[in-house]
Specification:
Helices cover 81% and strands 0% of the residues. By secondary structure, it is mostly helical. It has a single domain, classed as MetI-like (MetI-like fold, Orthogonal Bundle), CATH 1.10.3720. Helix 1 packs antiparallel against helix 8, helix 4 packs across helix 6 and helix 4 packs antiparallel against helix 7. The N and C termini lie far apart (47 Å).
Length: 219
């Protein structure tokens, strides 16, 4: 193990990690919004949009992120839609993650006893108020484990961004291996920095789940 090599390139990996975190969390935030919108459309049974959501979820979950990135980065410019590598990464992560988040929210809504919805209507709440004040808070808490698992899954999926020449952690490792052949050291730094990103997310996620259970919201 070349310790000097590791010390020399820690700053480079730090920059790549910051970029990975930035793109990852922007993409995940967009995915959560997409998931909420999709589940709202499904819940309110909006005819045409409901079918579009179903098709979107099937396409998104049935194709790898790498193929989606290639389509956005190389395919869309053919019809005049151009994006840089960072925007492509965010869009790809949002497109993939949105379907997983939508399914997580759906499972949370379906787990709520129908009597709660009926009780809300009997108290005079509208359908929108029922969703906002009764169903959504419970659905989020019930689906918290699935949502956190999706966040971790999407952060790990950022490793394919190197395929569109994005200077993320994986690109940095592959670049250094190609230049200096220090494979062990490059991969060691790659693993360490991914652990530094993912372990805090996992720990915080576990704390959130435990807090929700103690608050009486989860199962």
């Amino acid at each position: 193990m070349d310790k000097e090599f590791i010390k020399q390139y820690i700053p480079l990996y730090s920059e790549a990690a910051l970029l990975t975190v930035k793109i990852g969390f922007l993409g995940i935030a967009a995915a959560i919004i997409i998931g909420l919108v999709c589940e709202t459309i499904v819940y309110f049974k909006i005819p045409v949009l409901r079918r579009i959501v179903s098709v979107y979820i099937e396409i998104s979950r049935s194709t790898p992120l790498l193929i989606q990135l290639f389509f956005i980065y190389y395919g869309l410019p053919k019809i005049g839609i151009r994006t840089d590598a960072q925007m492509c990464g965010i869009a790809g992560l949002a497109f993939l993650g949105g379907s997983y988040m939508a399914e997580a929210f759906r499972s949370g809504v379906e787990a709520i006893d129908v009597i709660q919805e009926e009780s809300a209507y009997s108290l005079g709440l509208s359908k929108l108020q029922t969703v906002r004040y009764v169903l959504l808070p419970q659905a989020i808490s019930i689906s918290a484990p699935a949502l956190i698992a999706n966040v971790i899954f999407l952060l790990k999926e950022t490793s394919v961004f190197s395929a569109i020449s994005l200077m993320d952690l994986m690109f940095t490792a592959k670049d250094l291996i190609g230049l200096y052949y220090n494979t062990t050291e490059s991969l060691f730094l790659l693993v360490v920095f991914y652990l530094l990103i993912l372990l805090p997310v996992s720990v915080i996620g576990s704390l959130i789940e435990r807090r929700l259970r103690h608050a009486g919201y989860g199962v």
